[in-house]
Write a structure and sequence with these properties.
Layout (H helix, E strand, L loop, with lengths): L5 H7 L5 E5 L9 E5 L6 H4 L29 H10 L28 H6 L21 H12 L9 H16 L9 H11 L16 H12 L11 H12 L7 E2 L5 E2 L3 H34 L6 H10 L2 H16 E7 L12 H17 L6 E7 L2 H14 L7 H8 L1 H4 L16 E2 L26 E3 L5 H8 L7 H12 L2 H7 L2 E3 L3 E4 L2 E5 L3 H6 L6 E3 L2 E4 L9 E5 L5 H5 L10 H6 L17 E2 L14 E11 L5 E2 L20 E14 L5 E7 L6 E3 L18 H4 L21 E2 L2 E7 H6 L5 H6 L4 E2 L11 E8 L22 H7 L8 H11 L4 H10 L6 H13 L3 E5 L5 H11 L3 E5 L1
Helix pairs in contact: 6-10, 8-10, 9-17, 10-12, 14-15, 17-18
Organism: Schizothecium vesticola
Protein name: Helicase-like protein
C-alpha cells in the first residue's frame, strides 16, 4: 500500500486546527498556547477562533493582547479617526494577563477557549501574595528601608513635592497626545528634565557614543522601577483591582475581602503616604513609556537605531513588575488627564475634601507665610477622558445581561458626577489617627499577629467579597477607565451596575460576592467564576457578557439576595498548577494532538485513519429521550455563613443600619426528569454541582474536501462513506464527514443515557473498557495513547435547541436564509458540500458577521444543562463540541493537547 505524500497529508488536513505551546523568548514566563492552520492560506480558515470578540470599546482594557474590538454601537467615523491617530508605532511590553481574557469567553456560553484552558494552571491569581503590601496603609520594615535608601542614594530618586509630580504628569499627557513626539524634541531635552527634577544623574557614563541617549534614560528608569520591596507589583491580581481603592477609596468604608483574612489597618496618614508613592510610580512609568514609545517610533521611521544588546539588557532588567507598571502607564495616559485650576480661598469653617485637595492644602500651608494670606494656590483635578464611552459600555453590559429596566445613562452620570465633572476622585479621608479593625485583603492571605503567614491554599479561583457604596471607588475605577488587564473589569462592571441601581442595592444589601451569584427581580445572575453559572449557561434563554451570566432559572425557595456556592477543585486541577501545569509540557501538548499521531511522517498509510463517529451503535440504537430541568436547589449547611468583610463599618445609606447582610454558603444541586419515549418510563435524577470544573469550546474547523484520498479497503469507516453525498452504511444519523483520525487516538463513544444508567463508575474504568471503545486498527492501545470519552448528546433527544444555526466562527457568517438551509437538523451534508457552503459563507459582509455572532448565543437545552451537571458531579473537565461547527476528530486531538478526557458532543 502506498504511503501518503506530504502534499496529500496537507490536503487531507486542510482546515484542521493544530495545537501548540511555544515559548516567546527569555524572561517571558510560561509558554504561549496557540491554535494555527499551517497548511491553509485562506483567511476564512486562518481566522477561525474558539472565543468571542470584545464587543465594546469600553471593555478593551480587559486584555493586554492586541485585539480588534467589535463595537456594535460605535460611530464608524469616530472609530476611523481614532484608528488613524493610533497608527504610529508604540512600545508593546511582552507581558500579558494569564489566563488570556480574550480566550476566557468561549463560543459556547460558560466555556473558555484553548489558550485560557491551558493558562488556568499558571493563572496570575495563583501567585504568592505580595506580603510587603498586604494592607493599604501598613508597610513592612523592608519597604520603608528600601524607600529611604532610594531617596538618599546618589543615583536614586530626588525628593518631589506633590505639585511637581502632578505638573510632570500633565506634561507627559501632552506629550503622549502628540502625533510624532520623536520629531519635536531631542534626547538631551528629555535627559535634562529627567535628571534635574526626578532622578539623580548616573554616577558613571553608560553610553560613550551618546551619554544623553534615550537608552541611557530608559536604563536609569528601569533600574529604579525594578528595585525590590519598593513599588506595588501589579502582576498580582489583587493590586490591579485595589489600584482604584488606593486612589479613590474611603479607607473607613470601601473594602474588599476574600472572607478569610483579618488584619488591622493603620491610620489614614499611612494611606495618604501610599497614594503619594503610587503617584511617583505612575509618573516614573509614564516617563519610561514615553521614552520607549519615542525610541520605538524612531526605529520605525529610521531615525533611531536600537542595538540587540540594549534590547537584551532591557528584557533582562525590566522584570514583570516593571512591565506591569508600563501597562499602568498606558492605562493612565489613555484614560486620565490632570487639570490645573485656581482654587478659591475656603471659608474658615470649610475643610478641604478629597485626597488631592488635602495635598493642595498641605502645599498652601507651606507657602502661605511667603505669598500672603489671600494667595490662591493651584488646584489639581483628575478627570476621566472617556467617561461617556464607559457609561455606554455599562449600558451595553446591562442590556446584554437583560438587566431589569432602569435609566442607565442618567443614574450613572449623576452618581459618578465626581468623574464626569472632574472633581477630585476620592471621598473625604477619615480623621488622621483613627483606626478601624477590618479585613482589607482582596484575595487570600491572612497575617497572624506574630508575623507568620499561614500556608496558602492553591486555588484557581478565589471567593471575592466587596462592600458596595453609591458612586464608590469600584464605580469610579470603571467610569474613569483606569483599569488594568485581567478579571478586574468583570468585577467592576457588575459592581458599578449595582452601585448605580438603588433598587438593587436596597434588595441585595451592601455586601457583594463578586465570584458567586445573586437572585434579583425574577432572574439569577452568576459570575463565570462560579460553576453553577457555567452549568446554567447551557440552558435556553441564558445570556453571557463579560464574565457574567443571567438565567431565568431561580433557586427553589430563595428570594432576592447573594449566593455563595461551595465546591471543591478536582484532584488533577489542584495538583497541576504553576510549574506542574500542563502548559509547561510543550512536547506533550503538541505530540498528543498531532494530526499524524505517533506516526513517522515518512511512512503514513491510508489505513492508519478512520472517520470517528459519535452516534453509530453496534447493538441497538439508544431510546428517544425527553429531558426537563425540574429545579435548582440550594442547601445551606447549619452555621454556614460566609464571614462578612466589614463589621458595622460596611453600613451604607441603602443598607440595614443594624448590620450588613450575611452571605450564606450553599451546596447546589439540579433535579431533572428523564422520560423514555418508547416505554413512557420517567426517572428522576439529582446531580450535586460539587466540583469546580471547566468547559471548553472545541475549536472550529472546516472539513477537507480530500477525504477520498483515504478511501481504501483497509480504512473501514471511510470505506462505508459515499463521498458523492449518500450516507452509505453509516445510516441516516451519521454526522457530517469531518477530518480523519489517526489510530494513535482511542475513544469510547457512549450515549448520555448509558452514563445515566450506570451507578458507580470511574472515568478510568470507562476508558479502559475496550469492548465499547473503537480503535482504528487491531493493535492494542499503548499506555501512551490518547484516550477520550465522547458523550453523545445528539442521538434521540426530543428537547432540541430553539435555534439550529451553528456559525463556524465569528468570521464564517451567512444570511438568515442561507443559515436556515445550511443548518437544517434533518438534512445531512457530504464533506464536499459542507466545505463549499462554509467557504461561501465566509465571504459575507462584516454586518452579516455581527448578526451571526449575536445569534450564536441562542443555543441551549435542559439536556445540555444535564450533561454539564453530570460532569460537575463527577469532576470531569469537558470539551463542548458542536456538530457542524467542528468535527469530532479535531475535538479528540484538542482533548489530547489539554490532557482532558471528556468530550460532550452536541447538535
Amino acid at each position: 500500500m502506498a504511503t501518503l505524500s506530504d502534499s496529500e497529508i496537507e490536503k487531507l488536513f486542510s482546515g484542521a486546527p493544530q495545537y501548540f505551546a511555544r515559548s516567546e523568548g527569555h524572561y517571558t514566563g510560561a509558554p504561549h498556547p496557540s491554535v494555527a492552520f499551517p497548511w491553509d492560506e485562506k483567511l476564512e480558515i486562518r481566522d477561525l477562533t474558539d472565543h468571542t470578540q470584545i464587543e465594546d470599546k469600553a471593555w478593551g482594557c480587559v486584555t493586554a493582547w492586541p485585539h480588534i474590538t467589535r463595537d456594535i454601537q460605535g460611530d464608524r467615523s469616530a472609530a476611523k479617526k481614532a484608528l488613524e491617530e493610533k497608527r504610529r508605532a508604540h512600545f508593546y511590553p511582552r507581558c500579558r494577563e494569564r489566563p488570556s481574557m480574550l480566550s476566557m469567553a468561549g463560543l459556547e456560553k460558560g466555556s473558555v477557549g484553548y489558550q485560557a484552558a491551558l493558562e488556568l494552571g499558571v493563572a496570575d491569581a495563583l501567585q504568592e501574595e505580595q506580603w510587603g503590601f498586604e494592607n493599604l496603609g501598613i508597610r513592612t520594615p523592608a519597604v520603608l528601608e528600601q524607600r529611604q535608601r532610594m531617596m538618599t542614594s546618589k543615583d536614586g530618586l530626588r525628593h518631589m513635592e506633590e505639585s511637581l509630580i502632578l505638573e510632570q504628569l500633565i506634561k507627559n499627557g501632552r506629550r503622549y497626545s502628540e502625533n510624532h513626539p520623536r520629531e519635536r524634541r531631542v534626547s538631551s531635552e528629555l535627559y535634562n528634565e529627567l535628571f534635574l527634577q526626578i532622578l539623580h544623574p548616573p554616577t558613571k557614563v553608560l553610553d560613550h557614543r551618546d551619554p544623553y541617549s534615550l537608552s541611557v534614560q530608559i536604563s536609569a528608569l528601569v533600574k529604579v522601577l525594578a528595585a525590590p520591596n519598593m513599588w506595588i507589583d501589579f502582576s498580582h491580581v489583587e493590586w490591579r483591582i485595589r489600584l482604584g481603592q488606593l486612589l479613590w477609596g474611603n479607607t473607613t468604608e470601601d473594602e474588599v475581602d476574600d472572607g478569610r483574612s483579618a488584619m488591622s489597618h493603620d491610620s489614614t496618614t499611612d494611606v495618604h503616604e501610599e497614594r503619594y508613592w503610587l503617584l511617583i510610580q505612575i509618573l516614573l512609568s509614564c516617563e519610561l513609556l514615553v521614552r520607549l514609545d519615542a525610541i520605538t517610533e524612531g526605529e520605525e521611521l529610521g531615525i533611531e537605531s536600537i542595538k540587540p544588546s540594549e534590547i537584551l539588557r532591557f528584557e533582562k532588567d525590566a522584570n514583570k513588575s516593571v512591565k506591569w507598571s508600563l501597562h499602568l502607564a498606558r492605562a493612565w495616559l489613555e484614560n486620565i488627564e490632570v487639570v490645573k485650576t485656581e482654587l478659591a480661598e475656603p471659608s474658615p469653617e470649610e475643610k478641604p475634601s478629597g485626597w488631592l485637595a488635602t495635598l493642595t492644602k498641605r502645599m498652601s500651608l507651606s507657602h502661605g507665610s511667603q505669598k500672603g494670606e489671600h494667595h490662591r494656590e493651584p488646584h489639581y483635578v483628575i478627570k476621566g477622558k472617556q467617561v461617556q464611552r464607559q457609561i455606554d459600555g455599562l449600558t451595553h453590559f446591562a442590556k446584554q445581561l437583560r438587566w431589569p429596566d432602569f435609566d442607565y445613562a442618567r443614574r450613572i452620570a449623576d452618581n459618578c458626577r465626581g468623574v464626569t465633572e472632574g472633581t477630585p476622585l476620592a471621598t473625604p479621608l477619615a480623621t488622621p489617627g483613627s483606626r478601624h479593625s477590618h479585613n482589607s485583603s482582596y484575595f487570600a492571605g491572612a497575617a497572624s499577629k506574630t508575623g507568620v503567614h499561614p500556608k496558602r491554599v492553591v486555588s484557581r479561583r478565589r471567593k471575592i467579597s466587596a462592600a458596595l457604596h453609591p458612586s464608590g471607588w469600584l464605580s469610579k475605577s470603571y467610569v474613569s477607565g483606569l483599569m488594568l488587564p485581567g478579571e478586574g473589569l468583570c468585577h467592576f462592571l457588575m459592581a458599578t451596575l449595582l452601585e448605580n441601581d438603588e433598587d438593587a442595592m436596597a434588595k441585595l444589601g451592601p455586601m457583594a460576592n463578586l465570584c458567586g451569584g445573586f437572585v434579583y427581580s425574577g432572574k439569577s445572575f452568576w459570575s463565570t467564576s462560579c460553576i453553577v453559572g457555567r452549568v446554567l449557561a447551557a440552558g435556553k434563554g441564558s445570556a453571557e457578557c463579560m464574565g457574567w451570566i443571567s438565567s431565568d432559572i431561580l433557586p427553589q425557595g430563595l428570594g432576592d439576595g447573594w449566593l455563595n456556592v461551595e465546591v471543591d477543585e478536582t484532584a488533577d486541577d489542584a495538583h497541576h498548577v504553576d510549574k506542574k501545569a500542563r502548559i509547561w509540557a510543550k512536547h506533550s501538548v503538541e505530540k498528543e494532538s498531532r494530526v499524524l499521531g505517533d506516526a513517522d511522517p515518512t511512512s503514513v498509510l491510508p489505513a492508519d485513519f478512520i472517520i470517528p463517529y459519535e452516534n453509530i451503535y453496534r447493538d441497538k440504537t439508544p431510546p428517544n429521550m425527553w429531558i426537563e430541568l425540574k429545579s435548582l436547589n440550594m442547601v445551606a449547611p447549619v452555621d454556614s455563613v460566609a464571614s462578612t468583610p466589614l463589621g458595622t463599618n460596611g453600613v451604607t445609606p441603602s443598607s440595614d443600619a443594624s448590620r450588613p447582610q450575611d452571605i450564606l454558603n450553599y451546596t447546589a444541586s439540579l433535579a431533572f426528569t428523564v422520560a423514555l419515549e418508547d416505554t413512557g418510563e420517567e426517572k428522576e435524577y439529582v446531580f450535586t454541582v460539587a466540583k469546580d470544573i471547566n468547559f471548553l469550546t472545541a475549536h472550529p474547523c472546516v472539513p477537507s474536501q480530500h477525504v477520498r484520498i483515504l478511501k481504501s479497503p483497509s480504512s473501514p469507516t471511510i470505506q462505508q462513506v459515499d463521498l458523492s453525498g449518500n450516507h452509505g452504511a453509516l445510516g441516516k444519523n451519521a454526522s457530517t464527514v469531518g477530518h480523519p483520525l489517526h489510530k494513535y487516538y482511542t475513544y469510547t463513544a457512549l450515549h448520555l443515557s448509558e452514563l445515566l444508567a450506570k451507578q458507580d463508575f470511574s472515568l478510568e474504568a470507562l476508558l479502559s473498557n475496550y469492548s465499547s471503545a473503537y480503535r482504528p486498527s487491531f493493535t492494542p492501545a499503548s499506555d501512551s495513547a490518547v484516550k477520550v470519552l465522547v458523550v453523545d448528546c445528539i442521538t434521540g433527544f426530543l428537547s432540541l435547541p430553539q435555534e439550529h444555526e451553528i456559525p463556524l466562527s465569528p468570521v464564517l457568517s451567512r444570511t438568515d436564509s442561507a443559515a436556515s438551509a445550511f443548518f437544517s437538523p434533518i438534512r445531512e451534508l457530504s464533506s464536499s458540500s459542507y466545505a463549499d457552503r462554509a467557504l461561501a459563507g465566509a465571504m459575507e459582509s462584516a454586518s452579516k458577521k455581527m448578526h451571526s455572532e449575536t445569534r450564536r448565543r441562542q443555543f441551549g437545552s435542559d439536556m445540555e444543562i444535564l450533561a454539564r451537571a453530570f460532569c460537575a458531579t463527577k469532576g470531569w473537565n469537558a470539551l463542548i463540541s458542536r456538530r457542524r461547527r467542528g468535527c469530532l476528530s479535531c475535538a479528540i486531538r484538542e482533548a489530547g493537547a489539554l490532557g482532558w478526557k471528556v468530550i460532550i458532543r452536541v447538535d
